[in-house]
Amino acid sequence: MRKHHSDSREEDVVAVSAEAGSEPAGNEPAALIEKLSQDLEQQKKEAAEANEKYLRTYADFENYRKRMQRDLGDFRKYANEQLALELLSVGDHLGLALKHSVEGGDSSEGLRQGVEQVYKQFRDILEKFGVKPFKAEGECLDPSKHDAVMQVATTEAPENTVVQVFQDGYSYYDKVLRHAKVGVAKRPAEAPEGPAEENEACNQADS
């Protein structure tokens, strides 16, 4: 009889112990899920940061690549700038020779034609490589294109108008290769004032 009672108490103790031990086991999946969720959020955050860094790096690389392509294009485009500038003096001398041959009359007609042909070929070659003369006479004085070497007292043109060209100016594609050396109009002190709009034409352009 005592033995049966003792066995019952042992069974109760075992049941309580088993019941107590089963409670933590029931919470373990929830804790694991919570931890996995936190790890997943952390991984998402790190992935987003890495993607943002990648996009910034890619954008920087694209900007660098485009800038290098632009710089390389400009280098190729203007690589012959110094050569073209040096050749302009040859063109100047050919032009002077042509001018003197014309002044020489019929006796130098053959020379004139020969120089004229060479001069035209020379100008055509320059133009092929982007070197072109630009118009100066009759234009308003533009310091970005013209180098005024003297003033010419005249009433035939508004002040600051180019009335003489001593040396042609040239452009190299979209930039000025050489300024034109020019003389600009200056109204004589004793001359009467002309129409206001005529006098102010080039002055307004300069301002």
Instruction: Give the number of domains.
Output: 3
The counted number of beta strands is: 6
Q: What's the tally of helices? A: 4
- Average pLDDT: 78
Which value, in Å, is the CA radius of gyration?
A: 45 Å
Strands of the widest sheet, in order across it, are 1-4-5
C-alpha termini separation: 126 Å
Strand-pairing-aware structural class: alpha+beta
Topology (SSEs and partners):
Blueprint: H1 2-77, H2 81-103, H3 109-128, E1 131-134, E2 146-153, E3 162-167, E4 169-172, E5 175-178, E6 180-186, H4 196-206
Parallel strand pairs: 2-6
Antiparallel strand pairs: 1-4, 3-6, 4-5
Q: How would you portray this structure in words?
A:
The protein is of the alpha+beta class and 207 residues long. The chain folds into three domains: 1-77; 79-129; 132-207, Head domain of nucleotide exchange factor GrpE (Nucleotide Exchange Factor Grpe, Chain A, domain 2), CATH 2.30.22. It has four helices and six strands, in the order αααββββββα. The strands form two sheets. It has a three-stranded antiparallel β-sheet with strand order 1-4-5. The longest helix has 76 residues, at 2-77. It is elongated, with a radius of gyration of 45 Å. The relative contact order is 0.08.
Summary tags:
alpha+beta; elongated; 207 residues; Nucleotide Exchange Factor Grpe, Chain A, domain 2; 3 domains; three-stranded antiparallel beta sheet; 16% strand
Gist of the model:
This protein has 3 domains: 1-77; 79-129; 132-207, Nucleotide Exchange Factor Grpe, Chain A, domain 2 (Roll), CATH 2.30.22. It contains 4 helices and 6 strands.
